[in-house]
UniProtKB/TrEMBL annotation:
Membrane-traversing stretches: 12-35
Protein name: Glycosyltransferase family 92 protein
Organism: Plakobranchus ocellatus
Matches recorded under PANTHER family: GLYCOSYLTRANSFERASE FAMILY 92 PROTEIN
InterPro entries, sorted: Glyco_transf_92 (IPR008166)
Entry keyword set: Glycosyltransferase, Membrane, Transferase, Transmembrane, Transmembrane helix
């Protein structure tokens, strides 16, 4: 033991002899913190709060699903979704009013859930994400910096509260359990890390933006999940704003199978109800495109980035109607490995986008029936626009999540490393949708890459998935006709 440790421990022994065992821990922590504070060079010293943990009944449990909560007592609207532990930071994914500065916000960090534990107080820093599309509300990060000596003292924080009140007698306005997100096991010793890796860390996680509008396209969803699996995904993360009962049943089946470890594909669905705002005495849910861009897409994808950062080697960001297709390799893993070898400092791989227009049904030979039976876009459409969008227009990303701090829809905003502009001959975003460009001058080319590489396997997977779904419930296949799939 060093002097810095023995002196306070001696003091604790004496004090605890005087005051009895009950206060031992509390006093010990106080004394130790003060002592360690003194032994630090005179940089910014952190205040230790007197705020005692509120009744645990008022705190959401650790395994409950996240949801947007209002942070009361500020002069602006701030909603917090989930707190995520990231080494020396706790990042809280939030939605707030654009450009409104939030000062004097403090984080209260609890390292124990015992009723008499004491919070450590640090200033919160709040910043808007870059991409907000000029709406009134934007995605934002609220961040609380952790000090190394706190980790040394008591492990990692378990709960974070937020308050705008500087008084020492404050109570937090909102309390969030802190999600580990795999970071702890990453920092543990190699043995337990290997164990954790085996269990939870996957090579590719796919993050899909919020699904909304009573979404009911089961054929598209099943194809998205099965194609992702074939390309190398072992986890798909979705955000549930509003889905039809048929889609709910499909998701429940995949979630159940993932939990049983049957199919090696973990499907995670996070609830994504947008927050309600109080305006002039009336309460209303904030609206997509009126108040916030595309159902809070930026908050959702950046949540996915942080939440699965330590549980994935790479994260793939695409919509339900898009696939990133390797054109010379057979999987994402091979393609990424190849690109990485050429240039090791890559934080993100950017894929350019091309459209397979859904007004041109041209089923692949041998797959005509399957196209019809499973409502499969991949089998129906094999003619794509000759035109390939340039980088940053409609492009999509595969990122190394540990090198990226903030992503946009088509680009990386903050990261350490380069963005690799993958040549379209090696990989592209195949976007199955109604035409974006039309007229006699739009040229098309046949492209059988997907059916040649994955057709047979995909047909088998779709068959298996649909027979399980039909055995489970009375979901009839939604056979979308070519003109409207
Ligand atoms: C915390 O914020 C207060 C003002 O809100 C400021 O005076 C203080 O220096 C900040 N502390 C740190 C450690 O940044
Ligand atoms: C801040 O704390 C003081 C002292 O406890 C209390 O009187 C006051 O009502 C609090 N303000 C808010 C906005 O919670
Ligand atoms: C999606 O949200 C609805 C409404 O909150 C809920 O009833 C349903 O169970 C959710 N589905 C999934 C798969 O999370
Ligand atoms: C709330 O009321 C004020 C004053 O009556 C008005 O200027 C403002 O536009 C109202 N806000 C909304 C969102 O209706």
């Amino acid at each position: 033991m060093s002097l810095a440790e023995t002196v306070p421990m001696l003091f604790v022994r004496i004090v605890s002899a005087l005051f009895g065992y009950t206060n031992y821990v509390v006093i010990g922590i106080f004394v130790w913190t003060i002592w360690l504070d003194h032994t630090q060079p005179k940089r910014q010293r952190i205040r230790y709060g007197r705020s005692i943990l509120p009744r645990l009944g008022s705190i959401r449990s650790f395994d409950s699903e996240p949801e947007f909560q209002f942070v009361d007592g500020l002069e602006t609207n701030l909603y917090v979704y989930e707190a995520i532990l990231e080494g020396d930071l706790v990042t809280i994914i939030s939605i707030k009013e654009l450009d409104v500065k939030i000062k004097d916000l403090s984080c209260l960090l609890w390292y124990s859930s015992q009723q008499d534990s004491i919070a450590f107080v640090v200033n919160a820093s709040v910043r808007d994400l870059h991409e907000h599309h000029g709406m009134k509300y934007t995605a934002a990060y609220v961040q609380c910096a952790l000090k190394k000596r706190y980790a040394y003292l008591k492990g990692w924080p378990l709960l974070v509260g937020l308050t705008g009140n500087k008084s020492m007698a404050f109570r937090p306005k909102v309390m969030l359990p802190i999600q580990d997100g795999g970071m702890k096991s990453f920092y543990q010793d190699a043995a337990s890390r290997a164990h954790a890796a085996e269990k939870r860390v996957v090579e590719f996680t796919v993050c899909i933006p919020p699904i909304y509008g009573d979404y009911s396209n089961t054929a598209q969803l099943v194809e998205k999940l099965e194609m992702s699996r074939l390309l190398g995904a072992r986890r798909v993360v979705l955000y549930n704003n509003s889905i039809a009962p048929s889609v709910n049943s499909v998701l429940q089946m995949y979630i159940g199978e993932g939990k049983m470890g049957l199919e090696k594909l973990q499907v995670v669905v996070h609830p994504w109800k947008l927050p309600a705002v109080s305006e002039n005495g009336t309460i209303r849910v904030i609206q997509s495109e009126k108040d916030i861009h595309y159902f809070g897409q930026l908050a959702a994808i950046n949540h996915c980035l942080h939440r699965y950062r330590w549980l994935s080697r790479y994260i793939v960001f695409t919509d339900l109607d898009e696939f990133i297709i390797p054109r010379q390799h057979d999987s994402w893993s091979q393609l990424i490995g190849y690109r990485q070898k050429r240039s090791p400092n890559i934080a993100a791989f950017l894929f350019r986008s091309t459209v397979f227009a859904k007004n041109l049904p041209t089923p692949a030979k041998g797959f005509e029936l399957k196209a019809f039976e499973y409502g499969s876009a991949v089998f129906w459409y094999t003619q794509r626009d000759k035109y390939i969008f340039p980088a940053l227009q409609r492009s999509k990303l595969i990122v190394d999540p540990r090198r990226v701090e903030e992503i946009g829809i088509h680009n990386v905003w903050i990261g350490s490393g380069t963005t690799d502009d993958v040549p379209p001959t090696q990989g592209m975003v195949y976007h199955y949708r109604m035409p974006l460009r039309s007229g006699p001058r739009v040229l098309h080319v046949s492209d059988f890459t997907v059916t040649n590489k994955f057709g047979t396997q995909l047909a088998r997977k779709l068959k298996a998935a649909w027979s399980k779904l039909q055995a489970r419930a009375s979901i009839s296949k939604r056979l979308s006709l070519p003109i409207r799939t």
